[in-house]
Amino acid sequence: MIVHILAGGPSEFVPNLLAYHHEGVCWVGVDRGVVELLKAGIVPKRAFGDFDSISEKELQWLKERVPHLDVWPSEKDQTDTDIAIDWALAQKPEKIRLFGATGGRLDHLFGNIQTIMKGSDGAIELIDRQNIVTIHRKGEHVIEQSDSYTYVSFIPITPIKELTLEGFKYPLTRKDVPLGSTLCISNELIHSFGTFSFSEGILMMIRSKDEKQGF
């Protein structure tokens, strides 16, 4: 089983959900994301949230259409998205994809990045119109070249020991990467497959489409 979660982030950052809608996918809605799923013609199996971002009329509409709608209090120790991630992990799926989790408030963005750290290597993908974000732990990992996501960046969540990049335009060999480093931003694969490996730490990988932006 694959679980797809749509959170309540700004809709302009959400990719075409129907491109990810296929047999074997379990959809989960979070807060306003439930409304957006139904508007796209997708009925989620589960829905979570305090639903403080929608009207009472919209909430009643959801209750009539969603089989399992879990309404939580607004004052709680987890975000709505975090609750949905915990439920999804308990189902032991092959993969979890999180949409609607970027744009808007930065506190929610960084909180959502924290939630995807709960999964094993690359098991949870945070996806928007331009990026795919995954978290990886020590070991060797294989990455396939993509015509859509041409840029590959590695950002240390913790200090990284002995990072090696093979098959990349800018290779590395057993390089220590400290927190705060931008050394591994905007790399590119030059072969069909590449590998990255490191002996210690937690690394965030971001695959991005070329939108001709630079900072």
TrEMBL record:
Thiamin pyrophosphokinase thiamin-binding domain ranges (all copies): 139-204
InterPro entries, per database record: Thi_PPkinase, Thiamin_PyroPKinase_B1-bd, TPK, TPK_B1-bd_sf, TPK_catalytic, TPK_catalytic_sf
Record keyword Isomerase present: no
E.C. numbers: 2.7.6.2
GO biological process, one term: thiamine metabolic process
Xref: SMART domains: TPK_B1_binding
UniProt keywords, alphabetically: ATP-binding, Kinase, Nucleotide-binding, Transferase
Enzyme class: transferase
CDD domains in the record: TPK
Pfam families assigned: TPK_B1_binding (PF04265), TPK_catalytic (PF04263)
GO molecular function: ATP binding; kinase activity; thiamine binding; thiamine diphosphokinase activity
Protein name: Thiamine diphosphokinase
Organism: Thermolongibacillus altinsuensis
